[in-house]
User: What shape does this take?
Amino acid sequence: MGATHHDLVVLGSGPAGEKGGAQAAFFGKKVALVERESSFGGAATNTGTLPSKTLRESALYLSGFEKRGLFGINLEMKDRVTARDFFYREKEVVLSEQARITANIEHHAIDVYHGAGSFIDANTVSVTGADGTQTLLTADKFLIATGSSPTQPGNMPFHDKRVFDSDTILQLHDMPETMLVIGGGVIGCEYACMFAALGIKVSLIDGRDRLLGFMDAEISEALRHAMEKLDIDLFLSDTVESIDPTEKLQITLKSGHRFPVDIVLAATGRDGATKNMGLEAIGIAPSNRGLLTVNEHYQTSVPHIYAAGDVIGFPALASTSMEQARIAMSHAFDLKFKERLAPILPYGIYTIPECSMAGETEESLTKASVPYVCGHAYYKTNARGEIIGDRDGFLKLLFRIDDMKLVGVHVIGEQASELVHIGLTALLSNATADLFIATCYNYPTLSEIYKYATYNALQNRLKHMASVRA
Assistant: This one.
């Protein structure tokens, strides 16, 4: 059986695979894309990023959550939100994104091979189709962008149809009255919030003592309070001792708490999708979580084989995955186009309310012994914040105290994941407080809070200087 040769073979069509392949093809390389599933997009399109964010919007719309009491009336949710109601828009968005990815692949004249790809040797991949037929592909360069899949701990009864992971939750047939979310990371917190907004009684458990430990502690604490206002029961520094499948799922925690729930969602992390790819035979050793190690150019231990996206681990965001793949392909083919990842990356958490950050936290600055000053501005004292009815949102800016260079941006509240980009751009420009003081923002807008958070930071700096002189 003869092999078809390409300049590049990409394994996986998620954000990293699509953008990496398109980058190489744009510069005239002959590219083949191998995709195990029948549809393109990987977890980001089909089970992860887009579905969960769309479901969040569906939950807010169906519950009238953001408009409760805003105009002197209460918008009541229809008597019973069905699973069909909840998942309708998600399916529409997924189909639209799949069509966009297909059009992009066709536009770049990328050859597509559907099936499971595995390495025969360091320059050859065998693609096994659904009907068992095999196709051999050879290439000068390879990009592994196979993504990740939910971790399924052995002590969880996933054989029970009431126990879900973050992929299978999209197959929910009936809306529950009660649920337990195991895991207080990004996925767990996002799903806990959206189901709670629909009036479902949600409990969340996590072995750590705070939610989203990578976030600034003040934002993490504000999110905890917001989730409690949603009537979510939080069990932190605790673990599941047992799940007994009776008429309901009987949950017993290590702390001794016992309660029944209708369903369980295990959001306990994700593993790299590298099984059965023949990697070990060519000198690439995945970690025990299936993740691949790469250098600053995204090369694996075999230099002409690159990897990007979820399969290399943190931060495992669609946005960073795309950039990683573009950089990898620029290096692979010496394109001189995009040579490094931005030094500061944004993080967006689509909880209710949204949280977002870029740059340093108070904890990281303290650990590095960098003197700093904080500035806060609150949605409730902002005209646009008053209009939209967000009483709890706020912006927190961190400046280096000696020269007032911006070093950290943290937002919680409506549109936080959009608002953070103003601060991100300032961080990448090495801006100081002067930028926000000099800028004229539209009125009324949430963006205005950058100016007032900066004023607050300048006032706090003056107080600090006065206390030092005293």
